[in-house]
Amino acid sequence: MKVLSVLGAVIIAAAIALVIVLAYRQTVEPVESTAAAAQITAQTTQVTTTAPTAAQTTAAVTAPPDADDALLLLVNYQYPIAKDYAPDLVDGDYYARVDKRAAKPLQQMLDDCRAAGYQPFVCSSYRTLEEQARLYNNKVYQYLKSGSTQVDAEREAAQWVAAPRTSEHHTGLAVDIVDLGYQLLDEGQMDTGTQQWLIKNCWKYGFILRYPLEKKKITHVHFEPWHYRYVGKEHAKKITQAGICLEEYLGKI
Ligand SMILES: [Zn+2]
Hints:
Blueprint lengths: L1 H49 L38 E3 L5 E3 H16 L4 E5 L4 H17 L4 H9 L15 E6 L13 H9 L5 E3 L6 H4 L7 E4 L2 H10 L3 H5 L3
Helix pairs in contact: 3-4
Bound molecules: zinc ion.
């Protein structure tokens, strides 16, 4: 009798254990697959946020920019820079003078571009009002020489070389980067490996391609696939994902 009750207890214990195992499998497996699904979703989300896709470039900006952010300083033909604006400039290894807030990100971007096998070369950075005046006057002179009136010459020249006080180069936050093997400032820059890499990756370092082809009507500047402007990582990401220019981002069209 005692043996039978022990045997019965063992059978009951085994049955209970089997029920527990089955119940465990039914509850745990879906949890695992849910977790796996969540992980995949998280990975997908991560991929799309670190690399803006074509679809995302048309997305609207979700948060209004902080107009007080000094990195968003707007300088264009409508918004000339203050005559006494004096950025805190530093010298870099690969470039002339830039605002010190842009220096490290620029260095990192150039280093990574080089590590990817390209040859970026900073051909222009901070400019004084006098330097800009000289460049602008030279351009105006070229148009005058080819027969333009003074008004037309100034208007045409300004689309290629900003008039003094209207150039972003006065901020110290803008740089012109060319391919070492192709230093002409024309649309051919677009076809170099250096520009392809920079255009694709600059936002990760806080830079934007400032004068895109499709924004000429807003910027009033010809397509410049060499002019990059530092606005900080957060703003650069939003501007790039939205496919807009700085004027649109700031609501100052
Ligand atoms: Zn430039």
